[in-house]
Design a protein that fits this description.
The chain is of the alpha/beta class. It has three domains: about 5-240, P-loop containing nucleotide triphosphate hydrolases (Rossmann fold); about 260-335 and about 420-495, 3-Layer(aba) Sandwich (Rossmann fold), CATH 3.40.50; about 350-415, no CATH class. It contains 16 helices and 20 strands. It has helices at about 45-55, 75-80, 100-105, 115-130, 145-160, 175-190, 205-210, 230-240, 300-305, 330-335, 355-360, 370-385, 400-415, 430-445, 460-465, 490-495; strands at about 5-15, 20-30, 35-40, 60-65, 70, 85-90, 165-170, 195-200, 210-215, 220-225, 260-270, 275-285, 285-290, 315-320, 320-325, 335-340, 420-425, 450-455, 470-475, 475-480. The strands form four sheets. A six-stranded mixed beta sheet has the order 6-7-8-3-9-10, with helices on both faces. A six-stranded mixed beta sheet has the order 16-17-18-13-19-20, sandwiched between helices. The protein has a four-stranded antiparallel beta sheet with strand order 2-1-4-5, with helices on one face. Helix 13 runs parallel beside helix 14 (about 430-445). The two termini are about 50 Å apart.
Length: about 500
Amino acid sequence: MSDRGMLLELRNIVKKFPGGIVASDHVNFDLREGEVHTLLGENGAGKTTLMNILFGLYRMDEGEIYLQGRRVHITSPAHALSLGIGMVQQHFTLVPSFTVAENIALGLKKYKFKVDFKEVSKRIEEISKLYNLNIDPSAKVWQLSVGERQKVEILKLLYAKAKIMILDEPTAVLTPQEVESLFKAIRMIKESGTGVIFISHKLREVMEISDRVTVLKSGKVVGTLNRDELDPRKLANMMVGRDVVLKVEKKPKEPGKIVLRVSNLHALNDKGLPALKGISFEMREGEIFGIAGVAGNGQRELAEVIYGLRKPADGKIELLGRDITHTSVMARIKMGISYIPQDRNGVATCPNLSVAENLFLKDQQGEFLFNLKDVVRRSLRRIEKYSILTPNPNFPLKLLSGGNIQKVVIAREFENEPKLIIAEHPTRGLDVGSMEFVYRSLLKARDEGKAVLLLAGDLEEIFTISDRVAVIYEGEIMGYVEPDPSNLEKIGLMMAGVRDA
């Protein structure tokens, strides 16, 4: 590794945001030719901020950037790309109505006035073949799967001859087969001498693809390990600061009576297009029912319809035998439905309020909402019970880590004595210590007889705690499987739209 040329050095990078938040605290990081150097850490650790500085999206407050030994001042993404630095962000920047070739040619200075699409398409085909990306240059982007769109983003960087490629959480919206294909492409890319910065919080993937790993926590570098030093427990300890149990114990399930029955459910998405197409299933007391699927296939709409935030277009929802299809959110809360949304910072909480206030946002005893002393007093018990790390109950929620914000959400939802818990991507962006807490909390709720609906795209999560698994694709249930790793390929195919025979 050491005989490879040094491509990049970030020295003592500091980035501060309003409110005294230090996102990058004297961070040092480097990248060599032909290596995958992973940035590992939970959401809010500073991974994306650091890469946004490198890609010219943010200006650093202090520090130096060196490319192959030469100091540079990066002023914009276009400037970064001209220096050979490219980034595939979590949210793609493609124009859906354009072809692959049009998207790749877009913004390249060479084609500022006139584009030779025949030349562009030919070069795309050559690059696709070289790196086994297999993309048709004439295809419209809107016709492509999420995995194929990601390949287009990577092709854009290869076409621009980027020598440093930043991949920000690239597996978040991929099927297992697409992850495997991506990793093959990454290995071929690094063989050409390109350096790859892989941003992730998934230990299994980090172990598989990385040559080196740098762990970030609260904007600081915890340490860097070479490939021969990598160990899941060591990495978990570095992320969290303590030993973590990577596998939770799950008792045999003892399902009771039916809690939730969903029949022929249809619903529209925010654009007025069909999001749910005839969904039907039942859930019982004392079980975790996992619904796996790539993000954007109807999971959010399903959660919102069951909770009452979105009106169904057709179908029926029954809770403990009672039709609740057209009841209000408040009525459903009173009947025992709790909801852990995917967006913990916007939908699940009020970030500008205190920890104590967020713990009682849904409290049914209205007088406590107007008596802050009582709210603070009662919040102390929940803070202790759920191990929420906060200086005090009046501390602004937005200043907590992602894991502690999720603990606040779980404490509030679990303390309302729910019959049904809807958990939508409950560990997205969390470190392994916080994930362990969420898993144990959901399993404890299940063992107490509650029904838990788990909506997730992370199959490791689905396998870890689910008792039954269904797969959703474009608003339809593709089939049901046992939560066993031996079914990984089968689930992956269903996540791509292949219905179970």
